[in-house]
Amino acid sequence: MKILRVSCSNRGQASESFRLSQAIVEGLLGGEPHASLIERNLGGMPIAHIDTGYAVALASATEEYEGVVAGTLEVSEALIRELEESDCLIIATPLHNYTVPSVLKAWIDHIVRVRRTFRSTQTGKVGVLRDRPVYVAVSSGGRFSGEAAGQPDFLTPYLRAILETIGLRSTHFFTVEGTAFGPDALAEARRAAQHALAGYFA
């Protein structure tokens, strides 16, 4: 099994989202000890946003640009192949301003590509990638779920919808919330996340 981890915090391994994602990795390795882990560190090495050539190619007739891979289209192709070759995807991300950070949005713009990872039809978009488990490890300074929620959450519905667009429908979210409320709140958030993971991987 190949596990692809996409990490989005510029705090790297010190981030709560990475810490939570590592617990997910360990849970997966418990069932598949010989699995390999591929790292895509967007926080430390952000990818370029899509360029003019990419935009023109996607908006143009398929015949004219069929097979053309240059500029950020080349980056897009590499990222899509990396995803296609994985059996499992882990996204480790903070919640930024109620939604995904810009580095994750850039990755999404590369992998959600018409005529490559989805088809447009008269009844809507149809994903063409093979479904596989997706685990999203989310950290947030505030609380966005449950009775204690104090802010909107546009991250989880967006990620669920955008991943379904390309065919990835088996998405599971784990969170560490309220990290800005002091050491006790952080410790409790970590315990809650570990409890959720223990129940999932039991």
From TrEMBL:
EC number: 1.6.5.-, 1.7.1.17
Keyword annotations of the record: Flavoprotein, FMN, NAD, Oxidoreductase
First-level EC class: oxidoreductase
Pfam families: Flavodoxin_2
Residue positions binding FMN: 9, 15-17, 139-142
Note describing how the cofactor binds: Binds 1 FMN per subunit.
Keyword Oxidoreductase among UniProt keywords: yes
Residue ranges occupied by any Flavodoxin-like fold domain in the UniProt entry: 1-196
UniProt-listed InterPro entries: Flavodoxin_fold (IPR003680), Flavoprotein-like_sf (IPR029039), FMN-dep_NADH:Q_OxRdtase_AzoR1 (IPR050104), NADH:quinone_OxRdtase_FMN_depd (IPR023048)
Catalytically driven reaction(s): N,N-dimethyl-1,4-phenylenediamine + anthranilate + 2 NAD(+) = 2-(4-dimethylaminophenyl)diazenylbenzoate + 2 NADH + 2 H(+); 2 a quinone + NADH + H(+) = 2 a 1,4-benzosemiquinone + NAD(+)
Extent of the signal sequence: none
Domain of life from the UniProt record: Bacteria
Names of the cofactor(s): FMN
Family: Belongs to the azoreductase type 1 family.
PANTHER family, A to Z: FMN-DEPENDENT NADH-AZOREDUCTASE 1, FMN-DEPENDENT NADH:QUINONE OXIDOREDUCTASE
Protein role: Also exhibits azoreductase activity. Catalyzes the reductive cleavage of the azo bond in aromatic azo compounds to the corresponding amines. Quinone reductase that provides resistance to thiol-specific stress caused by electrophilic quinones.
Assembly behavior: Homodimer.
Protein name: FMN dependent NADH:quinone oxidoreductase
Species annotation: Cupriavidus basilensis
Organism lineage string: Bacteria, Pseudomonadati, Pseudomonadota, Betaproteobacteria, Burkholderiales
Gene expressing this chain: azoR
